[in-house]
Write a structure and sequence with these properties.
single chain, mainly beta, four-stranded antiparallel β-sheet
Length: 171
């Protein structure tokens, strides 16, 4: 009898504590998250969460502008730009920070490096994105007219010029 009464009292206390905490908004339950995707309809980057067969699109990441193009990183951020200006922003769940102006950009497979290419300047800029809350320009190169860019995890940029794949270097 005392065992059942003890369990009932403990359950009641735990329920009261949980409901009081939840009432003040201090606890938020979240399910598994797959990552992010670019939603062309809402022009935003949204979280994809749930489990296979029961996934859902969550709220948009706060860009502060309509996103026209996006490259999603496996590291929990995206490089995005709007139609106006060509400014590229690093978008995280907490907000967006401009890192440069570019026509083309890409993220390395690990998400630690990014490459931006500007046709107006003819330059390729390599960014170190390994810190969660900061970006650092690590290199800038002159480049031919490019159709696409990519970057390796070691920071080596490459591009497509004409129909050829070219490694971009300081020379």
């Amino acid at each position: 009898m005392y065992g059942a009464m003890k369990r009932l009292v403990l359950f009641s206390l735990a329920s009261a504590a949980l409901s009081t905490t939840c009432a003040f908004g201090q606890v938020r339950f979240e399910g598994p998250q797959f990552g992010y995707l670019f939603d062309e309809v809402s022009k935003s980057v949204r979280a994809l969460s749930g489990v296979p067969g029961a996934a859902a699109l969550e709220d948009s990441m706060p860009a502060g502008f309509s996103v026209d193009r996006a490259v999603i990183s496996r590291s929990g951020f995206a490089l995005v730009a709007s139609k106006a200006g060509g400014a590229v922003h690093r978008l995280t769940p907490t907000g967006a920070r401009e890192i440069g102006v570019a026509d083309l950009w890409s993220v390395s497979p690990s998400g630690a490096k990014a490459v931006l290419y500007s046709r107006a300047t003819g330059k390729v800029t390599v960014w170190d994105l390994s810190a969660d809350d900061a970006e650092a320009k690590s290199a800038e190169f002159n480049a031919p007219e490019l159709k696409a860019v990519a970057i390796a995890d070691d920071g080596t940029p490459a591009g497509v010029a004409g129909s050829a794949l070219v490694e971009i270097s300081a020379s």
